[in-house]
């Protein structure tokens, strides 16, 4: 990690809230799903491909065809993945993987977000907001001649049980290694009123410090939750400092998952249900393969009343704060990827 994580954004271009909103408005025009709305999903995929290519990135489409996958249903509703199990006989989808040319070899830092939404929801927060941050981060990193190796990943079928991320994690680890991973999962909804932030059942007993911090702020939903493990604690601190430097209106609440990386952490999560909430997105397959990872989130259904509903539309997001999330993510990726 570099000694001055807040220096990077001051040297190059800054994130543009107008561009972030444009990305969200295009992607969240209607629900997108490889199974339920394939034409919309193809348009969304083409948009992401074109935006990354225009920013100077080399984009690879990596299709997958898998059978008998334990996952979830993508029907709308507020229940967590673990409460919506389904066995998928066959799934065919595709991830988009992008790199800047000439940025060297060796282990990379992956910045990823999922493109699909659940049935019936345009998915502005979940997860057009995350994809928009990936696209704007792409522009920032392409303009920086000193940026080390970063890989951008836009995953398919997260709502079916992290299907695309499972494939991408295996391939990226095999093809050159991953130093770390930053997952953007529902990052655009903020609520300043007291009482707008809720906590999962049993959360206070397992994570007393984070629970106390939320209570001390009046349960306001005005922060980004930075979920990490011991292996990614330094990256989490970098993100928090970079967010504070980017905007005083964005704070990072650090939450350490006590489980170890690798298969043991997955097994412990099955025995401790509240911990499963910390692995509900595309960082989890990287954790399960021993890769240090962060999940950035506005906590989704524990804050956003529009989660997985038809009302998850672009007008509900805070693009000023999303700009700061983007800047902090770019800073953290560069710092983490630097030797």
Q: What are the SSEs and their pairings?
A:
Elements: H1 17-27, H2 38-54, E1 58-72, E2 85-99, E3 108-114, H3 124-142, E4 150-155, H4 163-174, E5 178-185, H5 203-206, H6 208-216, E6 223-228, H7 233-246, E7 251-256, H8 263-271, H9 273-276, H10 284-288, E8 293-297, H11 319-337
Parallel strand pairs: 3-4, 3-5, 5-8, 6-7
Antiparallel strand pairs: 1-2, 2-4, 6-8
Helix pairs in contact: 1-3, 1-11, 3-11, 7-11
InterPro entries: M28_fam, Peptidase_M28
Pfam family, one: Peptidase_M28
Protein name: Peptidase M28 domain-containing protein
What does this structure look like?
The chain is of the alpha/beta class. It has a single domain, classed as Aminopeptidase, CATH 3.40.630.10. The chain is 36% helix and 20% strand. The chain contains eleven helices and eight strands. An eight-stranded mixed β-sheet has the order 1-2-4-3-5-8-6-7, with helices on both faces. It is globular, with a radius of gyration of 18 Å.
